[in-house]
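Observation: inputs received (chain + zinc ion).
Thought: call the complex predictor directly.
Action: predict_structure
Action Input:
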Amino acid sequence: MTGKERLPVRGAQGDLLRLVATGQAESRAELSRLSGLAPSSVSLRVEELLDAALLVEEGAGTSRGGRRPRRLRVSPTAGLLAVADLGAHHARLALLDLSGVPLVVEERPCDIALGPEATLDWMAAAFDDLLRSHAPPGVPLRGVGTSVPGPVDPATGRVVSPSRMPGWNAFPVADHLGAHYDLPVLVENDANLMAVGEARAWPGCDNLMVLKAGSGIGCGLIVEGRLHRGRGAAGDISHVRVRADSSAMCSCGHPDCLEAYASGAALMGALADQGFAVHRPADVAALVADAVPEATALVRNAGRLIGEVLTVLVNFINPDAIVVGGSLSGAEPLISAVRAAVYERCLPLATRDLEIAVTRTGPDAALLGAGSLLLDAVLA
Ligand SMILES: [Zn+2]
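Observation:
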């Protein structure tokens, strides 16, 4: 493992590096304007970052008349981040540069029901494998991060009472990964990471609700441009009660939760009962794309139930956009039914400029979100 070095940056240097890494600034003048630091302070710190080979200066930046400024970029050799988006039966794994650009993304089968030790040891071996085959020589690993499909206590990095992760309750995920890597480790709920990654594709939208419709149902909340974690379970809409007839038991042990009717797992169960061969939520979306009436009706009903829960939240939070991602997001009737419920039931002022759309970032949203938050942890 190459990654024991510590970044020689701190405080304001990290802020400047982050502004360049996220594409917000490419010149000293822009850094000065965005950071509020005096031009002489910016110049000094940029020289230190150049000396540390974390920034490089190249070509000519955008000219504003007069001398053409050179363009600051995060050095491609500054370091790598290893990130994973962990699902129930598969994981997406990636190596990112410090700007968040993927060098490689792979999806591999895994089984979180094997428990946290086996799953996290598998993940570390998969990261090592990717580093061996894809990391450029001499570029150090700077941080490791993963999503988990359950609530995470942000103070401890422990999973708390996840409903579909047997054996994971209270397991110290961050500590266990940290034992493999003496580096900053990020552990965060999957819908939260999806929201952070997706937010980069919605400039000008500071308040976003990002729905993850996969095996489960999650929602990540961006408020004033930042992830709202609350106590760690913010955005969890899966256990809102949507019926009162106790007709379906939820994985949490209560009857009639949204998840018991509208999650990918619930839809797969209902379709299997009708004789369809469905093994993952994407199979449900594929049946809808093939215009199979039973699948379309179930997905439309799921969208209506999700939309009715969202009406309360839209009135309460007034987001700029609702973005739907996850493996069911390709099912158009789901999005249409969410739109119909929200536009019909919400206050006019809340829906006048509200956009309800499918993900712009696609299946890598959570990986990109992990990269963003992990860069903060690396530079902290
Ligand atoms: Zn429940």
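Thought: report the result.
Final Answer: The longest strand covers residues 90-97. The pocket of zinc ion is lined by residues 239, 250, 252, 254, 257, 259 (CB under 6 Å).
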